Amino acid sequence: MLKTNNMKSIINYICKYLILIVPFCFIKMNSQTDTGLTYKSFAYVSAAKGGNIQIIDNLSKSFYGSIGIISTDTNWRNSSKTLGISKDGQILFQDSYGLSTTTQIISLATNTIVSGISFSNGGGMIYSPDGNTIYSSPAYNILKYNINDQTITTFINRNTGTCSGANAPEAYNSLRMAISSNGNNLYVGNLDPRKKGISIYNTNNGTEIKIHSGISGVQKLNISPDDAFVYICNTSWGYGGCTNDPNLMIDIYGNNTNHSSDIAILNTSTNAIVDYLNLGAISDVVVSNDGTKIYVGTSTGVKVIDRNLSTNIHTVSSENYVTGAVSHLGLEPSGNYLYVVTSDILKLINLSDGIISTISTTSESNKSLGNIVFSSYYTPPIGLSVSTNPTNNNSNLNWTAAASLNLANYKIYGGTSLSNLQLIGTASAGTENFIHTGLSGGVTYYYKISAIDINNNESIKSSSVLTTTAILPPTITVDSSSITSFTSCISTASAEQTLTVSGTGLTNNVIVTAPAGFEVSLTSGTGFSSSVTITASGTLSATTVYVRVTSSATTGAVLGNLIMSSLGATDQTVNLSGVVNAISLTAASQTNVACNGGSNGAASVNTPTGGTASYTYLWNDTSAQTTATATGLTAGTYICTVTDANGCTAIQSFAITDSDTIAPTVLTQDITVQLDADGLAIITPAMIDNGSTDNCSIESYSIDITSFDCSNVGENTVTLTVTDVNGNVSTGTSIVTIEDDVAPTPLTVASYTLQLDEFGSDISITAEDIDNGSTDNCETASISIDKNTFDCANLGENTVTLTVTDVNGNSATATTTITIEDVTAPIVITQNVTIDLNDDSEATISTNDIDDGSMDNCAIASMSLDRTDFACANLGAYTVTLTVTDTSGNTTSEIALVTVVGDDLDGDLITDVCDDDIDGDGVDNDFDNCVRTFNSDQDDVDFNGIGDVCDGTDVSFPQGFSPNGDGIRDTFIIAGLAQHGDNTFEVYNRWGNKVFGSQFYQNNWDGESNGQSVLNKHEKLPAGPYFYVLTAGYNKVYKGWIYINY
Fold first, then answer.
1. C-alpha span between 161 and 533 (Å, rounded)
2. CB-count exposure of residue 774 (10 Å: 0-12, 13-18, 19+)
3. pLDDT at 11
4. Confidence at 25, pLDDT banded by 50, 70, 90
5. Cα separation of 790 and 764, whole Å?
6. Residues 955-983: pLDDT tens digits?
7. Which of 328, 329, 247 is nearest to 79 (CA)?
8. How far apart are CA 391 and CA 439, in angstroms?
9. pTM over 0.70
């Protein structure tokens, strides 16, 4: 037995891709006994030339039995061409091709012919996917058989011409048809190629799409499971003496080619042929369940076409099954086995391993096998039978089933037509009972039951049972469940209530009669009377009757029976009861309006008598008040209407009046008021009033004092007078305190300038010097300034603040700017000086050398000389000018005499630093071997380049010096240098840069650079080692390292 979850997919497959073919008649088949919801699957193989229909057990893949033929005529036309299985697998359809007979409907449950369908000369047949319609193509038409109502209609009439040329009939027969899974498109293969090879019809409106290109007569066709492609077996077979229309044979390549023995592939989305695949002589085609394999019957066996589901490209596969010439194919529901008919032999291909086997069938001489269909279903439980027990208008169904079957529930199908039973209900397993209610009397009903196990597998339906309901006597039914006691008011009809009247088997109308004090109607709100007539015959559906107490009923209780009657039916009564009420209302209290035109009147009523609580109240004032007491009333007449729970009403009237003699109540408050910038203050009555009141309303307020000035600063008594709208007057007093918090308005003079005298003495000012007419809203008490003296420290702009204070202590400030100037020039005092040229033939003076106590009334800012530097060309006396500038930019200049002098070794009145022959020996310094000693003979006994007069004790050099100004080793002193007055002294840093140089060095180097190399002039060298070179005369050279340390 196959697994249950596979059974559902198998059944869905069969229902979707069922192919109907033509059956003949029954013979008795082998029987099997099944227990429970047993799954069964059979293959039915049609027979040609009058042979039997073979039955194969698809589960065991073995012969099961056969169904005999109806006619023994062995003419090839009088043969079983096609078979079909109903959606539930219980009806076999046998179509007789070529005979004017009916298509037989065979019950596989009873092995009997149950009816026939008049499909004369039937061709191909197919079920609609929903199982409700069969399409058949006998001769030139396509017929449509409705299974539910068993009617036949012509779907398409294709007999539109005669057998000649282009006007030939569109198609003679259709051996095969295919239908899309939604049932919308019907694909018809035409055996006769004279007009077209395939047609596509819209089953909803019958419109046609014709497909010709390259298709000759169609032997078989099939559709892929996803409805994407239709696979068409072409055949070159023609019919009669009619010639083919060559224009109909133009293929997709534009060639007039007959693609007989080709598989033509139709794309259903475009309804166009997309490819031809030649496999030789072909006879049938089926498609695998997943749509990837197309199995084609050929003259040698089964060939396979592969479909790529991603690209939808079809290719001929190398997969090939050699079975001999194939006439028919059938793919069993699981898709694992392929049934192959070769003449009168039935073969089976195991598609998982490719093994081919033969299935034995009944041996019949000169017979051949044909088309293959499959039937799969679950059998009903043994003993599943149904009985009925009609009771009045119900049908009581009972059945039995074995408890060991693990059933879940049952489905009950019923109706008045055995061919159109509908699902009417379900019952749980173990219940085995169902009551069908609401049936009509004297009508026959049919029923069938199916069982569903715990795996949700549904069996086929049981045999039908029927029952006829009894005809019942006339009956009136009344539903008065909503009727309660009525309540109304005298002279007023009550609220209406409803009941419903229904009946069955009625032969006359229903009369509804009301008791005294009540009335009835069939329409809400209108048409009430003492009785109404309900038109009725047979069954009366629920009809609403409206009932109420009449407006003429008297006070007190009302009651009686409402009677429903009809000929032959038992009267039905409903007891009605109610009460008619009367209500009265009296005044409780009244308050008149306290002041003319006021709205503080009030009125109140007592609790009503004679009515039914609860009560509602409504006054006719503008606010429509809804309590027993109305307030806020003006003078006038007022009516209160009270309504009780029954809607009964009563009224009470009131007359409200008004008057006023009460004086206002005056309330005052003390206030404080500030004078304004003009020294004035104004007050109003509203500022004094503190919520004065009147029983009516106040007409006006007034005060005896309204304005104040500086003379009123302090407390003042003010009287407030209040008058109401009716002329009543009252007074009260208040203390009004007047304050001045307005500060004075200070005014200062414009900015001005003061000049210090020649001594820089202090300058004094007063507040009056700064004030420029400051004012106050009342009176000024004093003025003052924050600064009144200035000296040299105040040169420039000075901000002076003026403070003004009034008599009430308010003060304010303003500022002005006083600029202090110094216009007195400094006094310059100079002195004459004498200076010597240095070794570099230079001399420099500063202002300190010339100044001799210059002074200023404030302070000196700077001094400068018009000349500070002198050289050899400047020997003698020179005039220089000293200019002194004070902090205010004032300047004064005075002159002084500077005399430039220098050493003169040889007394030739040329200073040595400027003299080319210092010792006067007639030898130029550059060539003199002893520059500072007279030696005109230039004797040099040892030829060391030093004149004998200078060549004495050698020189010595210190290792370093510290030019830090402490008086110790501040200069670099070379011992014995005096004997080498014609020397050249040079100093280099570690990078070979010359940092100092001197001709005729005099032991005066203090560590400063003299600008002869990379450093600036007079810049102290950094601490560190330096290399010196002393050249004495012309051939005496001393070298070594010195260290500067500060």
1. 68
2. buried
3. 35
4. very low
5. 7
6. 788 889 999 989 888 999 888 787 777 88
7. 328
8. 10
9. no
Q: What beta strand segments (E) does 91-245 contain?
A: 91-97, 103-107, 112-117, 125-127, 133-136, 141-146, 151-157, 176-179, 185-189, 198-202, 208-211, 217-223, 229-235
Q: What is the mean pLDDT of residues 300-326?
A: 95
Q: Tell me which residue has tokens 């008004």.
A: 658
Question: Two tokens at 20?
Answer: 């109907």
Neighbours of 762 (CB within 10 A): 12
Q: Which amino acid is at 741?
A: D
Of 171-175, 230-234, 849-853, 906-910, which gets the smallest average pLDDT? 171-175
Q: What is the pLDDT of residues 105-128, one digit of tens each?
A: 776 666 566 666 665 545 577 888
Locate 132 and state its tokens.
């409700």
Identify the three-state secondary structure at position 639: strand
In this structure, what DSSP letter does residue 102 have?
P
User: In 866-941, at which residue ranges do the beta strands (DSSP E only) sit?
Assistant: 869-871, 876-886, 891-901
Q: Classify the C-alpha dihedral 386-392-394-396 as positive or negative.
A: negative
Beta pairing, strands 752-755 & 811-821? parallel
Spatial separation of the C-alpha atoms in residues 339 and 319, rounded to whole Å: 17
Distance, in Å, from the CA atom of 699 to the CA atom of 692, rounded to the nearest integer, reads: 12
> The tokens 């059938």 sit on which residue?
330
In sequence order, which residues have a C-beta less than 8 Å from that of residue 914 and are 6 or more positions away? 837, 841, 872, 875, 902
CB atoms within 10 A of CB 508: 15
pLDDT exceeds cutoff 70 at 578: yes
Strand order in the sheet with 714-724: 671-674, 729-739, 714-724, 698-703
3-state secondary structure of 459: coil
Beta strands in 454-571 (DSSP E): 465-468, 475-479, 486-489, 497-506, 510-513, 518-521, 531-534, 538-549, 556-565
Q: CA 18 to CA 331: how far, in whole Å?
A: 11
Contact 486/548 with Cβ under 8 angstroms? yes
